[in-house]
Amino acid sequence: MTGVPAPAADPAAHPWGARLAAAVRARESALLVGLDPDPSALWPGATPPSAASPADAAAHAVADHARRVLDAVAPACVGVKLQSASFERLGAPGVAALARVAAHARDLGLIVLLDAKRGDIDVSAASYAAAALGSTPTPWGPVEGLGADAVTVAPYMGRDSIQPFADVAAANGRGVFVLVRTSNPGAGDLQERPLGDGRSLWERTAELVASIGTDAARAAGPLGPERPALDPIGAVVGATAPDHLERLRELLPRAPLLLPGVGAQGGRVEDLAAAFAAGPGAGLVTVSRSIVGAAAPGEDPAEAARRAAESLRAAIAAVAG
Ligand SMILES: O=C(O)c1cc(=O)[nH]c(=O)n1[C@@H]1O[C@H](COP(=O)(O)O)[C@@H](O)[C@H]1O
Fold first, then answer.
1. Does ligand 1 lie within 6 Å of residue 34's CB atom?
2. Whose CA is nearest to atom 11 of ligand 1?
3. CA-to-CA distance for 239 and 148, rounded, in angstroms?
4. Cβ(173) to ligand 1 under 6 A?
5. What is the ipTM of this complex?
């Protein structure tokens, strides 16, 4: 333990990299459970209030499902990745459910990562960043956003679209994960394209992320021995392309890497060793379907999810060393 408290305690007082590493050490897990709730495929048992509107009923059921998933798997996890649109699609009740689920995750001591893949011009990016990670000054006083610990960001619009997230994150002890080399088949369409200098677009994106991360670390304090091992700006790197991991780690020596794509998309924890090289928090594996949908027909979904999460936690620990 480093003396840096785990996620919920006064985030602004400690840089994200140090907080993330402390959380992974304290919980002995580098696993984030992903919640992408489909209202038509929830765990059985939710009973919405009678006479509720469809949106209220669905949001109630989604929140109840999400709470039960978290209660089952939290002991094996360091955090939860909440897929924003899965909640937003239920309108205002869905957004309220997202906030309630985030609060429940925090109560369980989990890091809350909002997976919203934002990307916009600077002024709009600042609004998105405040909504996810910060607060907004108003004539009536500051208004808190969701209070997530970190958010995913799409880099297509370039440095000035990412920088507001880095700024809001730094001011609040939060983190950012920028899409660098995603897990989906379409990643090849653009990210693998060679640029004029022979490097691929994902390599150039990784360099941009490293540069923003170094600037953020410099702004937080001297880049000497006191600098946390991890920068506040991380990268999303699909577990479906493990051959890229060594090069990514070379380009991003201090970035936390968020690794989706294990299980349902074919990625394997055993292939991810290079991601963990920079120490606790350097590699974070996020798994949605293979945990939440782990149960065989007739099996208790909570027990199956608990077992799947525990087995992933152990597999990651074995690879991370
Ligand atoms: O940013 C992400 O979380 C993400 C990036 C990526 O490259 N691939 C990817 O599948 N994801 C997310 O991971 C989740 C799917 O996880 P699985 O159900 O475990 O395959 C969804 O929320 C995706 O949006």
1. yes
2. 260
3. 24
4. no
5. 0.99
Question: Quick check: is 3 in a domain?
Answer: no
Residue with tokens 């798994």: 287
Q: Based on the structure, what is the number of domains in the chain?
A: 1
pLDDT computed for residue 287 by the predictor:
98
* Ligand 1 closest atom vs CA 36: 22
**pLDDT tens readout for residues 95-144:** 999 999 999 999 999 999 999 999 999 999 999 999 999 999 999 999 99
CA of 268 to the centre of ligand 1 (A): 14
Q: What span, in angstroms and rounded, lies between the C-alpha atoms of 158 and 244?
A: 22
Q: 242 burial class (0-12, 13-18, 19+ CB within 10 angstroms)? A: buried
- Inside any domain, residue 283: yes
Q: Choose, from 67, 117, 204, 247, the residue flagged as catalytic.
A: 117
CA 194 to chain centre: 28
Atom of ligand 1 nearest to the CA of 263: 19
Which residues constitute the domain of residue 234?
A: 11-320
81 among known catalytic residues: no
Residue 238 falls inside a structural domain: yes
CA angle, 94 as apex, 177 and 129 as ends, to 5°? Answer: 30
Average pLDDT for residues 266-286, to the nearest whole number? Answer: 95
| pLDDT value of position 16 | 92
**CATH number of the CATH domain containing 108:** 3.20.20.70
Tell whether 2 is covered by a domain. no
